[in-house]
Amino acid sequence: MNPIYDTYVSPVPSIASSVQQRDTSISATTKAIDQLACQFMTKLNERATAFANGANFDLALRDAALMRVITPTSSLGYLKAGTIYQQQGRQQQAASMYEKGLAMVPSSDECYADLQKGHADAESAANNRVDFITQLPLEIVVSAILPLLFDECMEADTPCPYLYVSRTWRQRMLACNNLSFYHEELHEGPPGHMRELKRFSHHVKTLSMESGWMDVLENSLSIFDTCKFPNLTKLTIKYYGYWAGDVTYALESVSQTVTDLSLHTEEHQTPDIHLAVVLDLCPRLVSLNLTAWDILDLNEQYPTLTHLTMNILCERLSHDTMINLLSHLPSLVLLDIFIFPETQFLTSLRQYCPHMKLLMCGGHHIFHHDNYNRHVEGLQKLCLGSIVDDDEPYDGNHLIPLLRDNHQSLEHIVLVGGITMDEGDLDSSLEFNRLEELEVDAYNDDLSILAIWIIRRSSHLHRVKICNHVGINDDDLYNALKGLKDLRMLSARTLGRHSTWFGNLLEYHVQLGQDSPLKELKVAMDDHVSTFSWMDAIAGLRSLQKLVISTVGIATPAAYFSIIARITKRCPSLSYLELDFGRNPAPEGFISQINDWSTLQCLHVHASSISARDIIRLLSFANLKNVIIVAPVEDYLIHLLRKHIPYVDQQPR
């Protein structure tokens, strides 16, 4: 190793003149060393300049650091480092370096004044600010800058610093009346309770409140009595321990402005607010998310409501209740009901709610509320079913007419649980021309049969998720999926040891080679993985780009290693790998199974823990661009990864 790059090299020592006078050889060699040191400093300075001009700033700073080690009381090393930092625009670091130089270098140094000037210039540049809020046109401030500053809700009791920079800043930020606040349950009401919310109440557009047992004495909801919210349009209240009258009074005070309301209680001793009461209090509501113990009949029409989400905490909603609900809400675009209702209402959906685009019943909230095409008539997204242990199969004979009525508009179907139906009602001539995604979690034969019928009639289907608990119809399922010419994503769970459809389908796509449309595969493994004949087929998928493996059901690391060893040897197009260990630790050494995978660009890992050794092994991946880790990892390891990998995201479980 070259000794001049040793971090701990000592400065060039000074030799007293009395010592040099006693021995001429000491004097001569000292003079020669001083000359060499000066030449060395000059060359380091020149090279650091060249490095910086070529944007090799790390190398330039290394040479500047060596200059400071050799002569720590000389201004040259500090000046050079400060100049390099300024070239990078790192004015604060430059000012800090100049300040160190002023502390170490004697004032007699011929460049001491340069250190002072450099420090003053860097400090000035570091403190230079451009007031975009004041100088840019208001419409740009409102549309482009404020969303960046207020991307999260403000706390009701904590001052927002941006609102206190200047009067002009405050005026411009308040001009859009678009502030968002939240207030959580407090165990003790501090002085100035909700002070900021009260101060800016006239400019609040979104408010989220959680008022609970420990907060009742403070009575957070009383803020609606003491303050006005003339611009409030979106309100969320989670309440525990309040009387219904307290909540309805709060709603009444903002009834003429609120269009989006969420109202929840999960405490049995807290009275719920009935749907009819809420709709009567807030006539401008467009979207409502409500938790209630039951639904009372509606007696009036509510044409403004388009989105309704309800968590009804009763056993089941009757057909009459559902018909009453639909018949009084003619403009519904979305209906999301947690409890699974009696299914007879499905045959009347089009009659009462002709604008319905998204329907979810059973507690699977998988569709974004605004993700639909406003220009396409008919139901576009459908999610039905529940997997509660004591759920009886629901009547599929009411589902089939709904599918028939909307076969030209459905884009995404999710069916869960079990059904009963008459196969004779399945129309062999029907085609789902817009259906692109199908998810089926089948707990009985009839739902499997219905799923196969849908697949055979959906030529544009390109995303399929299958969980077949009953394990029958293997040949029919295989043949149906084989006929999909644009199957880009396949997800499979609960694969029995004797199930054949999945392995046969993989082999079919292996035979297609590069012509296979299959780009993404998601599969859940268990301890019987070594007995599955289709394991090797995954590695033969020439077009596969994304692979997601869940090993939650695997008890031993050895079984997992066998998966990795088989799959990662081939797959020439694979660039994304996601490994989900669930609540289990990642088995130590699992990264070594894939560290020679040259095409891998993105790795996503879920686990209860990951060893430091495996984290460090990630540095050996030549083309890895993205790492997402959902597990606790030491900060220094994440910092190390971020120095070598462009994007690293670590999330706690």
Structure notes:
The chain has 653 residues and is an alpha/beta fold. Among the domains are: 3-126, Tetratricopeptide repeat domain (Serine Threonine Protein Phosphatase 5, Tetratricopeptide repeat, Alpha Horseshoe); 140-293, Alpha-Beta Horseshoe (Leucine-rich repeat, LRR (right-handed beta-alpha superhelix)); 325-486, Leucine-rich repeat, LRR (right-handed beta-alpha superhelix) (Alpha-Beta Horseshoe), CATH 3.80.10. The strands form two sheets. The chain has a 20-stranded parallel β-sheet, covered by helices on one side. A two-stranded parallel ribbon has the order 11-13. Helix 10 (195-199) links the parallel strand 2 and strand 3. Helix 4 (76-87) packs parallel to helix 6 (112-126) and helix 18 runs parallel beside helix 19. The model is unreliable at 1-10 (pLDDT under 50).
Helix content: 25-40%
* Class inferred from helices and paired strands: alpha/beta
CATH topology of the domain at 325-486: Leucine-rich repeat, LRR (right-handed beta-alpha superhelix)
CATH architecture of the domain at 325-486: Alpha-Beta Horseshoe
Low-confidence stretches: 1-10
Mean pLDDT: 85
| Radius of gyration (Å) | 34 Å
Portion of residues in beta strands equals 15-25%
State the shape. flat
Q: Helix tally?
A: 23
Number of strands: 22
Distance from N terminus to C terminus (CA atoms, Å) equals: 44 Å
Organism: Lichtheimia ornata
Keywords: TPR repeat
InterPro entries: LRR_dom_sf, TPR-like_helical_dom_sf, TPR_rpt
TPR repeats: 75-108
